[in-house]
Specification:
The structure is a homodimer. The first copy, chain A, is of the alpha/beta class. Chain A contains twelve helices and nine strands. In chain A, α7 links the parallel β8 and β9. The mean pLDDT of chain A is about 95. At the A-B interface, α8, α9, α10, α11 and α12 of A face α8, α9, α10, α11 and α12 of B.
């Protein structure tokens, strides 16, 4: 496990993932736009670099976990990145982006003889810290096998969706859309319970112990029940529901629920 | 267990519930509008009657499982029903109706010294047959205790929501609304998967084994994945989503998702 891995993006998910890789014995060269976020990792032996390309080992593996297509593209297109990754090098991309953007990035990597492997992950930061991420994987076989030990060091399960880049990313968008729909349903349920004089927590507890006994309901349900009107979802659902509906729109697939959720989540309403 | 119980309504849920009560040793007097539906029960010892009131024992227990408010009210108001149920008699109502309608019915029963106890159930007909229903209960304490053995004979769990009629019915409406939202999300996910060249079953299997590992997703997901565009939901979701949004409207609780689902389910679209 002495191979040095590049690691780009130390946000809410990237940081605990990087920490677990260090704990599993991997050497890491880490890059983050805001350099101070790397500090907790330096004490654990990570080496910090000041440009994305400096995190790379020629022919090696670099992991990225960044916010969106734009951030990921700007890293890949940054000076010297693909040259330094070099032939046989693997970019293991864990960000949630559009499947079409992932396909474009894969083609860009292929032109330089590099591999792009997508491995978007499901799980909140606490799940990442506990190595409990669920990982969707797609890309060419040999590089997928090479990165598998890394994935097993950070998650509780890897689901392989084949060779075609975009297939794993699509599943990630589908899951985030379904989760956002579930959260909206719980907001309406707990709001009604409260306004009609019932205890929202009691309603949610019953439903999430029985028909809806799934992590997504249990982890969000109680928080929503505590204050249904003020529950705030952060920026991820809006971004990912938008990616879901745009992806559907490209293949003319009807998504009325995704459109409603996008409208409800859009800042103009607030 | 020799007490004779009245049983009204032998539909998809009523029939397996009645069968399980017979199997547990209860004597049943059964009534159904379409008399022929009672036939499978007669061989098991049930006695068929031709009017609702004839199913009742004075001061005894009658169970009803019917389609909606209108059907339930027409039974309660049918000639001689409340007189025959009599003081101390219990009407154990398992239908999914509006909480406000349940409250009105409870008041009507109370005027005659009868008890109305609500116990709407979650579960498909297969779950009812397997005694796997989840039961929401509300009503006055003493009659609730008296009917509890009946509920334990037909379900896998009873959740008591207190004395106030309507509280258990509200939970049932909330659960059916959340289930309908989950199904709509899966329809959009599997439709997108299919149209974008991915295998809908593989997508659903991954999601329902991980974040969405709940009965409602697992029981409907595979069926939807097989043919997302043609999946048909029957009349129950439309009825219950409509009750949910009407109930919310009475307390001015916002339910944009329920409104969308109601629109999508309304026959005018087909």
């Amino acid at each position: 496990m002495s191979e040095t891995i590049g690691f780009i993006g130390l946000g809410n998910l990237g940081l605990p993932i990087a920490r677990n890789l260090l704990a599993s014995g991997y050497a890491l060269k880490v890059y983050n736009r805001t350099a101070s976020k790397a500090e907790p990792l330096l004490a654990l032996g990570a080496q910090q670099v000041s440009q994305p390309r400096d995190a790379l080992t020629r022919g090696g593996i670099v992991i990225s976990v960044v916010w969106d297509d734009v951030a990921l593209e700007s890293i890949v297109m940054s000076e010297g990145f693909l040259e330094q990754l070099g032939p046989g090098g693997i970019h293991l991309s864990m960000s949630t982006i559009a499947p079409a953007a992932a396909q474009n990035l894969a083609a860009t990597h292929a032109e330089r003889g590099c591999y792009y492997v997508e491995a978007p992950v499901f799980g909140r930061p606490e799940a990442a810290a506990a190595r409990k991420l669920w990982i969707c994987l797609a890309g060419p076989s040999a590089p997928k096998e090479r990165v598998r030990p890394l994935l097993e060091a950070i998650g509780q399960g890897v689901f392989d969706f084949g060779d075609t880049i975009g297939a794993a990313t699509l599943v990630k968008l589908c899951g985030n859309f379904m989760g956002t729909a579930a959260v909206q349903a719980m907001i309406e349920v707990t709001g009604l319970a409260k306004k009609s004089g019932n205890d929202p927590t009691k309603v949610i507890d019953m439903l999430t112990q029985t028909l809806f006994s799934a992590p997504i309901y249990q982890s969000y349900g109680r928080v929503i029940a505590e204050d249904p009107e003020r529950y705030s979802r952060g920026p991820i659902p809006l971004k990912d529901v938008n990616l879901f509906r745009e992806t559907a729109s490209q293949v003319e697939s009807q998504t009325p629920l995704a459109h409603l959720l996008h409208t409800l989540l859009s800042p103009i309403r607030n």
